[in-house]
Amino acid sequence: MCSNVNRKHKDSVFSVLFSEPKVLRELYSAIEGIDVPQDAVIDINTLSDVLFMKRINDLSFTIDNRIVVLIEHQSTINENIPLRLLMYIARVYEKIIEQDKLYQRKQQKIPTPEFIVLYNGKEEYPDKKELRLSAAFKDITSIKFPENEYPLELIVKVYNISYGRNQEILNRCETLENYSFFIGKVNEYSEKLPLDKAVKTAVEYCIEHDILKEFLMKHGEEAMSVLFWDISMEEYGEIRAEEAYEDGMEAERDSIARNLLTEGSTPEFIQKVTGLSIEQIERL
């Protein structure tokens, strides 16, 4: 396996595969069940800088400068994707809008955003589901806003593209269908092989059976390495990062609590500051 892939700034296999306007037109048309005109201008503006814990978005593009589409590929269920996409779309608008026009009196028209996630992991998931940013809001209905009347909302359409699911979408986009089959093979082989060997075996199988053959032969070992990294980090890294973050936060709270105790603060005051229980504070 190739180990010299740039981990700080890398493109996923998915984003490389769908990096051409022609393929994006086919992909978007398949997902939405429409035919995007051949003369519609597709401008790719995928974020290429390091963004939020060294993660970049998978695909971002405009159609005739009227619609801006953000598409993410996921092999694990992530309920935080609406929040991530909110951050992404703000950065995308920064790229495509002339900043000085924001201070003019005339309203600046912007492309209408669409947010799409394509999921093909091992976990069972419905063919289609909506994720809403408002689901993450802390409950303040008793204070101010009635339910579903939030001043900010972002809706993400999630499609399960595991091989054999949402077949009508896959039938309309050959590249997506082949990618779905390929990842299905990776998942199949990973049941009995280490992940790196599963990826390598899936690549060899697909090349032999003329599935993404040109793409896989062109990108070769680097593609295998990047895919191995993508799957490993999606399935394991986020969980470990979350655990590490929680461990770090707990250690930081304990340290603050000890310092406050040394300074003579009461347990009740420390509880308000750190969120620790009185029993936790007394054990420090």
- Number of H- or I-type helical stretches: 9
Kindly state the percentage of residues in helix: 40-55%
Strand order of the largest sheet: 1-2-3-4-6-5
Mean pLDDT: 80
Rounded Rg? 23 Å
The largest β sheet comes out as:
6 strands, mixed
Amount of beta strand:
5-15%
Task: List low-confidence stretches.
Answer: 1-10, 50-55, 236-245
Beginning-to-end CA distance, first to last residue: 47 Å
Count the strands? 6
Provide the domain count. Answer: 1
Shape: globular
What structural category characterises the helix and strand content? Answer: alpha/beta
Order of helices and strands: HHEEEHEEEHHHHHH
Summarize the SSE layout with pairings.
Blueprint lengths: L12 H5 L3 H12 L9 E3 L14 E5 L3 E8 L6 H16 L15 E8 L8 E5 L22 E6 L6 H6 L1 H17 L4 H14 L4 H50 L4 H8 L3 H5 L2
Parallel strand pairs: 3-4, 4-6
Antiparallel strand pairs: 1-2, 2-3, 5-6
Structure description:
- The protein is of the alpha/beta class and 284 residues long.
- It has one domain.
- 47% of the residues lie in helices and 12% in strands.
- The chain is built from nine helices and six strands; from the N terminus they run H-H-E-E-E-H-E-E-E-H-H-H-H-H-H.
- It has helices at residues 13-17, 21-32, 81-96, 167-172, 174-190, 195-208, 213-262, 267-274, 278-282; strands spanning 42-44, 59-63, 67-74, 112-119, 128-132, 155-160.
- The protein has a six-stranded mixed beta sheet, with helices on both faces.
- Strand 3, helix 3 (81-96) and strand 4 (112-119) form a beta-alpha-beta unit.
- It is globular, with a radius of gyration of 23 Å.
- The N and C termini lie far apart (47 Å).
- The model is unreliable at 1-10, 50-55 and 236-245 (pLDDT under 50).
